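Minutes, project huddle
Topic: does the predicted pose make sense with iron/sulfur cluster bound?
PN asked that the exact inputs be recorded in the minutes so nobody has to dig through chat later. Recorded below.
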Amino acid sequence: MKKLGFGMMRLPMPDPKVQANIDLEQVCRMVDTFLERGFIYFDTAYFYHEGQSENAVRQALVERHPRDSFLLADKLPVSILQDKTPEDQDRTFQEQLKKCGVEYFDYYLVHCLNRRYYEGVKRLDTFGYLMKQKEAGRIRRLGFSFHDKADILDMILTEHPEVEFVQLQLNYLDWEDERVQSRKCYEVCVKHGKDVVVMEPVKGGRLAKLPEDAEAMLKAVHPDWSPASWAIRFAAGLEHVIMVLSGMSNMDQMLDNSGYMQTFAPLTGDEVKLLERCAEILSAVPAISCTACRYCVDGCPQSIHIPDFFAQYNADQMKLRQGQSVDKDAYAQIAAQGGKASDCVTCRQCEEKCPQHLPVTEWLDRVKRTYEG
Ligand code: SF4
Ligand code: SF4
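Predicted holo structure (tokens), as shared on screen:
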């Protein structure tokens, strides 16, 4: 199986402000190209595109291609089941099968597991429930996506040896980062003999646009490799990684990714060392570790486009490093779509939902001082 999966969380949209409005025609073309090039893994989730990603999967993939020509992964949204009943859990799973138009999922994951959500998973006996679905043929392989420290992962895998794979946030910038612990989590999976699926190999796009000196260093070795391709090659080169997900938003990204992953070869030791140097350069640029998952946006009473502000702030930190000034017009354009950073009422709903555990309100205060001062 080729190691590139189509993450269906950043699909093309006619209007980037309306997540639920997906450009289905373009998605159909991307799906067809992906399959024609020999890639078969598609990854969706209950929350993606405000619930519309699963519908897009049905319309662009399931209803247009034979069921045995692709593998489909979906995820149980345990964050919204925390205070719910086992019947709600079952209803949600059945709803997902229906929305995707399938009788079974090839890969099914407990979504976004961490120490806190694990308590709800234990109370609902989620793994017991999902094993029953597996026995009934509605799940082929069972796993979970994970956002916490390596010791918590070790505990969960020890308590649930029935789990077959783990989806990890893994990229060359987070590899040694103590907040994410990519390397340590990967090593825990290896210790337990679990396959690894990689999410955020390009860290929400941050590794696709590097500081000039870092990009020049990579271009000097492989002028035709994009920065994003370096990041995906790094993750895919790890022995126990079976799949690297890329949230592709347009046909160009699809063609780039599916092009170099046709004849993928792991990076050499010298190439990995170059990425370690890139990680050092990137770490010196102040940045918010937002992966643009957008879980925080729904429910914000002030309609603040949090990840868009954070992406603008990160891009401007690179500009400041090159002696340029921040782009207040771009900030104003984002603010015109919802609330300003200063509109935040510190209710902290967003912080509870953030898988990166970001102090969103503190960063919004920094954004406010940077652009509204
Ligand atoms: S803390 Fe601020 S940004 Fe977060 S949900 Fe509340 S108002 Fe929105
Ligand atoms: S702030 Fe957190 S929840 Fe919001 S988009 Fe970024 S990573 Fe996701």
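Observations noted during the meeting:
- Residues 290-296, 306-307, 353-354, 356, 358, 360 surround iron/sulfur cluster (ligand 2) (CB under 6 Å).
- Residues 306-321 form the longest helix (16 residues).
No decisions taken; revisit at the next huddle.
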